[in-house]
From TrEMBL:
Coiled-coil annotated residue ranges, if any: none
Protein name: Glycine cleavage T protein (Aminomethyl transferase)
Listed Pfam families: GCV_T (PF01571), GCV_T_C (PF08669)
Organism: Mesorhizobium prunaredense
UniProt cross-references to PANTHER family, sorted A to Z: AMINOMETHYLTRANSFERASE, AMINOMETHYLTRANSFERASE, MITOCHONDRIAL
Residue ranges constituting the GCVT N-terminal domain according to the UniProt record: 58-297
Amino acid sequence: MNQQPAIAPSTARAAAQSHFRTLRPGTPFQPRIDALARTNDWYNWAGYRAPHSLWDEELEYFAIRSQAALFDISPMTKYRVEGPDAEAFLNRITLRDVAKLKPGRVHYTAWCDDEGFVLDDGTLFRLSPTRFRLCSQERHLPWLLDSAIGFEVIVEEETEAVAGLALQGPTSFAVLRDAGFADVERLKIFDIAEFPHDGSSQGTSRVTISRTGFTGDLGYELFVPAEHALSLWDRLMLAGELRGIRAIGYAALNRARLEAGLIVANADFVTAVHAVRPNRLRMPDEIGLGFMIDFDKGHFNGRRAIVSARAKKRLRHVLVGLEIEGNIPAEHAMVYYRKSQEVGLVSAAMWSPMAKRNIAIASLARPFGDTIVDDLWVEIYAMRELQYQKLMKRAKVVPRPFIKLDRRTANPPADF
């Protein structure tokens, strides 16, 4: 029997250390992001090296709310779905009625397994009558290809081929206008359009711009072929110099999305493919996505299970917004009923500068948060004089979003 040569312990340790020192691959925008990075605060987003913050987490948040913030969304998984049966295929796997999504529009949707548990949520862009772009948190290509059997449709992942940027904040429209994107003011919320972009030595390309975002603010998302990414970045940064444009990391975006009451897969709920324990699985109604289910469109993945769960009242959880007394964020705090019965867990929390409230998103076991909303408490451990102190703070269920900014949907967009 052949034996593999043994590896010396010192060599193994060196290899392991080298592995952990190696940064993950960057996106097409990485040269520009690296040049701006001051905090060296990176995290792994779908295998890409992405900034948790770039210069100051708190000030990056205020860049979103007071000027224009540029965030690299290239690691977001993107699929091209195209063909005569593209609409029928997407109607079969997602919750919303794709027939109602007109070309040049976007909608937020989700998809489930056959048991009605959420596999992921994301955005669906209808670029033409037969061509779509599906964006998601997780990778689903094998499942999509299996689901496409019997449909005349092409499904391809284009994550690496298409670079993406989110431009968010009150001056975002003015930045796009000053960058020369003519008639961008015509885009209403959830509209999409293509605009020319001169990629310098690479030639002229097209930029797809949608009036969408993950901040609850006025904002846009831009998609461009990867080879034109840097020229697009430079075009926006130059045009936004007088409008206060700043690049930001995920921590600031996460604060803004919480104020907007938006949820994140595998943060506020565990997707069906990642759930190890059965009690971690969630149906759309259990994470606030029941509104998007369209039963008039015919059969879709999980339909029978969802109908049965509603009819038999087998929905076990509810995702709620909480307002908590005091100003200490209750992130990952336990939620109790009458200070004694454990009923849920906070998944995201912050003191909101915009709402001037201590806010949180929490998953509770029904009937708590559903029919029982009084006498709820959260258990917070706060560091005081080098010692953790347990604080029991009263919480009340409140509607999401926690803030609602008129400029997000204003038409035409405001010129700040």
